[in-house]
Design a protein that fits this description.
Among the domains are: 162 residues, CHASE domain (Beta-Lactamase); 163 residues, Alpha-Beta Plaits. The chain is α+β, with helices and mostly antiparallel strands and 546 residues long. The chain is elongated and about 105 Å long. The protein is 44% helix and 21% strand. A hairpin with a 2-residue loop joins strand 14 and strand 15. The chain starts with a helix and ends in a 10-residue tail after the last strand. Helix 2 runs antiparallel to helix 10 and helix 13 packs antiparallel against helix 14. The protein contains 16 helices and 19 strands. The strands form five sheets. Strands 3, 4, 5, 6, 7 and 8 form a six-stranded antiparallel beta sheet that branches.
Length: 546
């Protein structure tokens, strides 16, 4: 009978015969054990949710990075405009020199420009010059007068007969490549002439289009442009175009080498942004003034972070194409999304294992489940309570404080100088540093207190608050001292500090959200006031400045 039962048990699995006489199994369950099928379902579902969370985090990171990029672009364009406004003011100072004197001598002009120390304070500007119109009937006497000043080789260049002559008679510094421009008739060049006429007739600054400076003959040639301001005879009216032409005396102008002008303009951000300048509103190789000559349009850019803007310099339009360097976009891969992906895959594998164990061994499955639930309440990197667990403990503390009419303190801690460490040594070192920070924070508090990590380099501490002994300030002082001590990580001595904001229940808020918000505001003011200090929340603190 035993043998019969074993035989019956062996043939209990159903087998179907198709019409063609072929043997097929009764569905997927015929090939998989229940534990295997359940594990595959859990794996598929958990990986799906991991993908959704990763995709959302990546999209959020892209939006945040796009916002950062747009801000950097605006700042870069603003710096270009501000630098040119500064140079315009320099030229206005020279115009004022002529307005203050009936006759500005060559020596006076030299002394004025020398005092500006252009090489030290105004990169890109080749000098400051003064060009005058020369009527054809006065050309010979004009040349004779300049030669009598000690310039026997002086002449108006280029040679030739024409209805209108102009000549650069003053140009400082009067040395080096600037000597090539002495006596040059800028009016012979249509691009320069258009800007000169615009300045003369409008009474305002006017920038020329793209040119090659006369100074750049030979080698080290850069694209250039010029900025003009008109000079009118003292006391003569110049309210209308007709009056301005009648009283016109000459042009104060400055030649610029565009690459020298742009050098160092964005400081440390120059490694983040690639800026190309185009003359006018055309984005083409012929219009390119500065930047990558192979980049002739947004569509050809290898990065999604590209912006095109038009700015006006002296009434002349420039097109500014700004794109991110490759390292900027790679920040997406160093954000939360990869952490979520790795953690999600790890959690998926763990949940799959739990599902497997659930069928075969309930006790072991329950134990593994408790470990998985810990992932939802504790920070993966530091093993500190996460935001969810911290919020739960804060709600419990507030409920108890309301019953006992006691107080509760919340500290918001942000690490100072953590990002430079993370950028220089990499995220692996940064993660080890965050773990050591967590250890030091726990050493500064009691077992009844709670230290949690909200994310990144932001931590919070929950303290039962006793007004008479100022326990929160004591703990804050310990934290400041502990985090300012050097960290020995992988053979490197790393130095950071912290900015701490404190909010106290009930005077600073009666809900967990309001307390955290006000502690965050106080932390911002601590960081703004010099970092490595503590600020208690005060209603006068403006959140809008954050």
């Amino acid at each position: 009978m035993i043998k019969d039962k074993l035989a019956d048990k062996h043939v209990a699995k159903p087998v179907y015969i198709s019409r063609q006489g072929e043997r097929r199994a009764g569905g997927l369950t015929e090939w998989l054990a229940p534990s295997q099928l359940l594990s595959l379902i859990v794996l598929a579902v958990s990986l799906f949710f991991t993908y959704q969370l990763w995709n959302e985090a990546r999209n959020n990171a892209e939006k945040a990075l796009q916002s950062d990029f747009d801000y950097l672009v605006r700042e870069s364009n603003r710096r270009i405009e501000q630098r040119m406004q500064t140079y315009e003011q320099v030229l206005r100072g020279a115009v004022a020199l002529f307005a203050a004197s009936d006759d500005v001598t060559r020596q006076e002009f030299h002394e004025y420009v020398s005092a500006l120390r252009l090489d030290e304070h105004y990169p890109g500007i080749e000098g400051i010059g003064f060009s005058i119109p020369v009527p054809p009937a006065q050309k010979a006497s004009h040349i004779t007068a300049i030669r009598n000043e000690g310039f026997p080789d002086y002449s108006i260049k280029p040679e030739g007969e024409r209805d209108v002559y102009t000549s650069i008679v003053y140009l400082e510094p009067f040395s080096g490549r600037n000597l090539r421009a002495f006596g040059y008739d800028m009016y012979t060049d249509p691009v320069r002439r258009a800007a000169m006429q615009q300045a003369r007739d409008s009474g305002r600054a006017a920038a020329s289009g793209k040119v090659t400076l006369v100074q750049d003959a030979g080698h080290d040639i850069q694209t250039g442009f010029l900025l003009y301001l008109p000079v009118y005879r003292n006391g003569a009216p110049h309210d209308t175009v007709t009056e301005r032409r009648a009283s016109f005396a000459g042009w104060i102008y400055a030649p610029f080498r565009i690459s020298d002008l742009m050098a160092g303009l964005n400081g440390e951000k120059s490694e983040t942004l690639d800026v190309s300048l185009y003359d006018g509103n055309s984005v083409s190789g012929d219009a390119l003034m500065h930047g990558d000559s192979e980049f002739n349009g947004i569509r050809q850019s290898p990065t999604r972070f590209v912006r095109a803007h038009h700015i006006s310099i002296g009434g002349h339009d420039w097109t500014v194409i700004t794109r991110a360097q490759p390292g900027f976009e790679q920040q997406i891969e160093r954000g939360k999304a990869p952490i979520i992906l790795r953690a999600g895959i790890a959690a998926s594998v763990l949940l799959t294992l739990l599902a497997w164990l659930l069928v075969d061994d309930r006790a072991r499955a329950l134990q593994a489940a408790r470990q998985a639930l810990r992932l939802a309440l504790y920070d993966i990197l530091t093993d500190l309570p996460n935001r969810k667990l911290f919020t739960d403990r804060l709600l419990q503390a507030l409920a108890k404080a309301k019953r006992d009419k006691a107080q509760v303190a919340v500290m918001f801690i942000d690490l100072d100088k953590f990002k430079p460490v993370n950028d220089q040594y990499g995220h692996a070192i940064g993660d080890l540093l965050l773990k050591e920070v967590a250890n030091r924070l726990e050493e500064c508090v009691r077992q009844s207190d709670t230290v949690a990590r909200l994310g990144g380099d932001e931590f919070v501490v929950l303290l039962p608050y006793a007004k008479e002994n100022h326990g929160d300030m004591i703990v804050a002082g310990k934290i400041l001292k502990a985090l300012s001590e050097p960290f020995q990580i992988a053979g490197q001595a790393l130095h950071i500090s912290s900015s701490i904001g404190i909010a106290v229940y009930p005077q600073d808020g009666d809900t967990e959200k309001l307390l955290l918000k006000n502690a965050d505001i106080a932390m911002y003011h601590a960081k703004k006031s010099g970092r490595n200090n503590v600020k208690f929340f005060h209603p006068d603190m403006e959140e809008g400045g954050k």
